[in-house]
Amino acid sequence: MVTAVDKSKVPWWVSNLIVPLVNLTLALLVSALFIFIAGENPFQAVKLIIYGSFGYLDGFAYTLYYTTNFVFTGLAFAVAFHCRLFNIGGEGQAYIGGLGVFLVAINVSFLPVPIVWLLAIAGAVVFGAAWAFIPAYLQAKRGSHVVITTIMFNFIASSLMVFLLVDVIRDMKQMGPHTVALPKEIWFPTFKEFAALFGIKIRYSPLNISFLLAIAASFFVWFLVWKTKWGYEMRAVGHNTQAAIYAGISPYKNIIIAMCISGGLAGLLGINEILGVHHKIVAGFPAGYGFTGIAVALMGRNHPIGIFPAAFLFGILYQGGSEVTFDMPNITRYMFVAVQGVIILFSGALENLFRPQIESFFVNRLNRKVSV
Amino acid sequence: MEFLLDLASLVNSTLRISTPLVFAAMAGIFAERSGVIDFSLEGKMLMAAFVAAVGSYYFGNPWIGLLMAIVMCVSLSMLHGFASVTHKGDQVVSCVAINILIIGLTTALAAAWFGQAGLTPTLTDEQRFLEITLPFADSLREVPIIGLIYSEILSGHYVFVYLGYISVPIVYWVVFKTSFGLRLRAVGENPSAVDTAGINVFAMRYKALAINGVLIAFAGAHLSTAVNANFFREMSAGRGYLALAAMIFGKWHPKTALIACLLFGFTDALQIRLQGVELPVVGEIPVQLIQAIPYVLTVVLLAGFVGKAIAPNAIGQPYVKER
């Protein structure tokens, strides 16, 4: 039996770097086992993942494009989590956020381009936040568990959007469930155009300036959660609601604000997907990115500095994963959904599995050094 | 008569559709009464559906499939317990992890093993459960009222439907009338008091989770080896969450949870009927909106027109023995 060590003696890099890395390694080992069960060679899969995500310029750009999505949904989950709220509804909020982007952009496209972009971003945030508001209100006022309501809102968002895409805003000249395309002038510039400035020719790249927006959003979340009075209040509610009430902080207000900001961040996924990639609403465009955000946030320990590398790692898994599914007939993209589950398990629920052992190992070693 | 037959068939499908919800709600009662949140009902149901379908296909016997599903679901419950009871990890995170893991794994393995996009092979009649016609159902059909109730509503269900409704009084008896049930509820309300009385809190929670695993396996097997003859991607379609909502709406009590499950089942049965039907005043409602009705109902019920739901006191908190 390992006795727990004094937390204050544990160096920050042990608890925030070594422990997460050990957990990640365990998760990847279990994932390798799954690939083996599915009848493929895990080592070959790792090779393909690394080649697919780093091996060539287009692939790397794809990796960063996925990273952008995961930063948005990861930040979304993290903000709510600091208030001890499990916003599992990133998927639905992103879907409705995309509706906001499209409706705003199509209606104001006559304005100067930068203004259209700003308004579209506002549309994404407002629509995403609105979709998170109802579960937030019900949690705050009625105690309906936010996990169930947000999941239900994912289902409802999906039904609603399919209804809109089939019956209301569908491009009536086409059969598929998608809208008309936005005018070309307001599309986000992509990596293809950027590379062309340096004389590099790329056929197609989904990576666009939303990546910069993701960086900005990370700074925004860091500032908001750790440097403002509101962020402090929200974390206080999350840590100890009773103490927060005693200090005069309203849990209702903070639950609602935290969820709305969370929903707004998830809505930004719509910016990347609609202004950057599809230029129209395509049925099912959030494609599970909202759920992946949970894994990203938990792996990144709910801090933007952790979320960015975690999002990048998932970018590698997604882009490398598509290379794997291309080459290995037995592996589908769902295998990487399973990998996400394993990562959430080891870096979230089982994060304390080896923590006491690792921490006491390092503390004892460091003490020995000091005494010598 | 036409109307009565219609009504009978609506009640009949309500009973069938509610069955997995009933199993899941009963499973949820065991876990949550012991103080362990279980959102992973959804994932476990999906896993049970997958394992039952695969097991029945390979061994040619649906009972073996059911048995394998039970083993798998109990293992998953143990995993949940290992993370959230033994290692005091966050219970909700553990459930979310299990759910996402299983959505991915079942579909990925179905594709890898059977080469179809997330489908398992169709089961033959020997490999699945069939509807059971109760004795004398045919001869009683012509008797007024009784015949209608017996032959049209009660007869002709899958074995799981009967087991599901039998499980409700049993769960009630176990939870409220036995010393095991008393300990179970006490562990969920005040674990340290139970610990002082010399009862092992961790062992109680593991036992509750084991029962939870057995019950939820029936729900999954019902979906893939009785109502349908194969497993398909994400076939649990949120039923685990609906059941949990029914359980909360039923205030963690088997009887009221059963009523909530029947309400969900009835809405779903009605929803299927309404598709493509011209209604007076509003006309035909688009199918996507009709399909959303159970989910909207869940939100409405949870928002609670019957007062705030009071959960077991110690729910969601890992138990730490004081040193």
Topology:
The complex is a heterodimer of chains A (372) and B (323).
Chain A (H helix, E strand, L loop, with lengths): L11 H26 L4 H13 L2 H26 L7 H19 L4 H30 L3 H23 L22 H7 L12 H18 L1 H11 L1 H6 L4 H17 L1 H10 L10 H11 L4 H24 L6 H16 L5 H17 L1
Helix pairs in contact in A: 1-15, 1-16, 2-3, 2-14, 3-8, 3-11, 3-13, 3-14, 4-5, 4-6, 4-11, 4-12, 4-13, 5-6, 5-11, 5-12, 8-9, 8-14, 9-11, 13-14, 13-15
Chain B lengths: L1 H32 L7 H19 L2 H25 L4 H24 L22 H4 L5 H9 L4 H19 L1 H11 L1 H6 L4 H27 L11 H11 L4 H21 L3 E2 L3 E2 L2 H5 L1 H11 L20
Antiparallel strand pairs in B: 1-2
Q: How far is the N terminus from the C terminus of chain A?
A: 27 Å
- Overall helicity of chain B: 55-70%
Q: Extract low-pLDDT stretches of chain A.
A: none
The radius of gyration computed from the alpha-carbon positions of chain B, rounded to a whole number of angstroms, is: 20 Å
Q: Give the C-level CATH assignment of the largest domain in chain A.
A: Mainly Alpha
Strand pairing plus helix content of chain B: what structural class? Answer: mainly alpha
Major β-sheet annotation of chain A: none
